[in-house]
Write the structure tokens for this entry.
Amino acid sequence: MSAIAILGCMWGDEAKAKIVDYLGDTADYVVRFQGGSNAGHTIVVDGQKFVFHSVPSGIMYPGTKCLIGCGVAIDPLGLVKEIRNLEASGLTFTKRLCIDEKVGLVLPLHQELDKVNESRLASSKIGTTGRGIGPAYADMTARTGIRLGDLGHPAYLKQRLKEIYAYHGQSLDAQTLKAVMTQLQEAWQVLKKYCMSVENILSEAYLSGARIIFEGAQGTLLDRTWGSYPYVTSSNTIVDAVGIGSGFSARLLDEVLGVYKAYVTRVGEGPFPTEIHGPLADKIRKQGNEFGSTTGRPRRIGHFDAVLGAYSARLNTLDGIALTLLDVLSGLEELKICVGYKLGGKVLTTPPAHPLDFNKIEPMYLSLKGWEEDITGVRSKEALPVNAQIYLEAIEDLLEIPVKVVSVGKERDQTFKIDL
């Protein structure tokens, strides 16, 4: 038996899905425990691209069951569409997908509220995807939200819809109520066969010695409590969210693997100490295809930040690092790693808590030589160029965590483990 959490450790988009896919060939279960359809997880197999938003990445393996825990916010209409699109690509869901009956729902109302709220923000515009995730989580906290199991009780659902619209001061005439009810009931006809208790499944799986992978969404620095608040997502993304979002206590995990890019990216607004602009950023963005899986927005680009990297490693008690997109750095003459921040005459080795202080800090860099070689065919650390090995070792030393997995390309087989 083994239970492993695979978590994004920066601002998301670290290629977590590829690592889940790489390590998931022998997994019995892959579990999503937080986040919503604002998460876009991409896997490339034999040149074919698969994009997941709510469905766990383990669905790529026919012998793996995929669970969506109660900590996830799902758009029932969007999830039905995602399932149908993936089925059209040749993937199967029968007896393989389970959705917790307590999972919170994202309604069309939430998507409307998301766009309105974003337009009203002045000092702290977040740059959300507009998918309604934040308002849905807010409603669950306010106890006005609707859960998947509610769809099986039409009279109760109708009353809850009236109450949630009233809570937000929105009018709900008979025609709109009927339309929303119809949409949700149609979605329920598809989703009800997947609706069950994820906690019970995981409890039995653990006792039977199954291999379980927990797939994180977004990244540690987007955690609503520990991230760069208020420029964060609406769920908790750190390792402790595993228990809250699935019913499987994080104390039972055997390993926590943190996924980092060989550089840093960010989508949306918020502080970004090592952000770079101009030709270098454009080159990395193009080589790394740094455009959002969900929105298509170009991602902001920056040098690797070991201050924030070490911070997220501590929060998640990482056992190892999976470093992705190392191949994107090939051809760069110089590589920089941020090792500290200057703020008001002081040197910080931990991130400041307030966003205004984040905007004032000056990064301190360690400069390393790059490499010219194409490394997409490399399958061991020893076969990497010497300067690439030095880069890996610098990250290990600064984060005080070993690099266990390295990705050097988009394809599943362009990944290798490092024997420790």
Summary: The two ends are 21 Å apart (CA to CA).
